[in-house]
Amino acid sequence: MKRDSRLSGVLHVLLHMADADGPVTSEALAGMMQTNPVVIRRILGGLRKQGLVQSEKGHGGGWRLACDLDQVTLYDIHVALGAPDVLALGHRTESPGCLVEQAVNAAMSDAFSEAEALLLDRFRTITLAALSRDFRLRRKSGERECDNRK
């Protein structure tokens, strides 16, 4: 089962941007994330619409944060990404008329809803500033930064 890692990837990109002295190009961010610059531009374009990042064209241009790290939470980023499903588990739907499948799906729906609510509530408590502080502490302690950072 493929996992949706967009939130993790976007947070990674945003923390690199927060650590940069100026704008960061899509190409540089793509190198850090081992992806295509088009993917970075598409994702950051959506975040720009939410007022979280801004772009500057021309020589010396690139992407920069347009938000206060203390005010933006993981939940805000999750919503900016379109609020994708946070759980990879799902229901079996091959036999919707089957009473066993109905009972199982009803029980699982309640559990999924509760788990998702807990996770999203936790996302509301974690700011980009907290992630940035954690990153900087790890760097000070001598831990290795991203191997793919250029």
TrEMBL record:
What is any Pfam family matched here?
A: Rrf2
Q: Protein name, please? A: Rrf2 family transcriptional regulator
Species the sequence originates in: Microbulbifer halophilus
